[in-house]
Amino acid sequence: MNDAVRIRRITLLVTTSSSFLTPFMGSALNVALPTIGKEFGATALMLGWVSTAYLLSSAMFLVPFGKLADMMGKKRVFVWGLALFSLGALLSGLSPSLPWLIAFRAFHGIGGAMIFGTGVAILTAAFPPQERGRVLGINVASVYIGLSVGPFLGGLLTQYLGWRSIFYVAVPLSGLIALLARWKLREEKWGWDVRSFDYMGSLVYGLSLAVLLYGFSRLPEPLGVGLTLAGIGGIGGFFLLEQRNPNPVLELNLFAHNPAFTFSGLAALIHYSATAAVGFLLSLYLQSVRGISPQAAGLILLTQPVIQALFSPLAGWASDRIEPRVVASAGMGLTTLGLLLLLRLEEATAISYVGIALGLLGFGFALFTSPNSNAIMSSVDRSHYGVASAILGTMRLIGQTMSMGIVMLIFALWMGGQAILPETAPLFLQSMRVAFAVFATLCFLGIFASLARGRIHAER
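^ thats the sequence. predicted structure below, dont judge the formating
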């Protein structure tokens, strides 16, 4: 085995390990939230901030750190991100109270942003274009494996070792990945002037995005409406600011003169917006309407991520040989079909029907995600891999927030403040169908955004 092949394999191992770690932490921690609430006497709203603080922090810093990675070296930012992630996990595990835990989770999110914004960029830079889809598919599969095993292992750790053990397990794992990356990944030539970084643009971008995402999550409350509008205004101001900056944190030309990059990013945003809340809705349906135990509901919901993990490498491999827009658009079409199947859910629908719909969603998601990631990373120059990777992560976070915001808005309009009880089950089913109808419509429209990206292979 020559040195180039060995380094590529080590790069794949390091990046896929980090891609497993971050979703594993999030999904494992979700299982531990009730236990955390009991220890600290926390309300459901306060517990929500344990996850929200991490997501908002990651969203705020993704693009700035992606730009830094392009300026000062992706490996450097990646290793420091893993170190901060490890420290954030340790501090979170040592939290003496819920406010401290929320604060440390926000710090944790900074490390996560540094990993998100560089991992895919490092992987893309290490492999030639004809192998890129395959390795990105393997990387995506590791994400879904983390999401799949997180609830199970998180439950075991919480039950036998306490919720803090979830954080403590992450400390040596992230530290080990950081050491392996530091010793084995190739060094990059870099040289940058600290004064040339767009600090003002980064500040305006981060704050505006945080306000927008938080505001959207609080809709339809008046506060949510006000914050959403303020966030949109802030993003508009950020674009004006970037047009006047000779070295912007986000080069708008990536969007203005690169339809493949623009429409691939838009397709990712639409797809995550249409699918991220499906597990939430089906978890409520299975447990509150059908009376299924949490453990059994979790096993049913595993269908989707398991299918995604199995077929993502194959979809990535296919996108190296077939235009990514063809494979990704087919995936979005299958996702649309899966969402339409969920429109027919009733109180007595067979569980096997739910499993079939989830399997179809998982297959569609696998066909879409890897090729779409391949299209985004292949449509930009090597000098912009960090920002492109960060944009991909940002589209995911914004889409996840919008998806939950859509569900909360529909619940508020159809159910008001009523709890999901046997007597309110018809109202819940109605609101759930409305949500799936909105998601299916979004996903159908996303097919056209996916097709509009143009050819990728011809541009290599």
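The chain has a mean pLDDT of 86.
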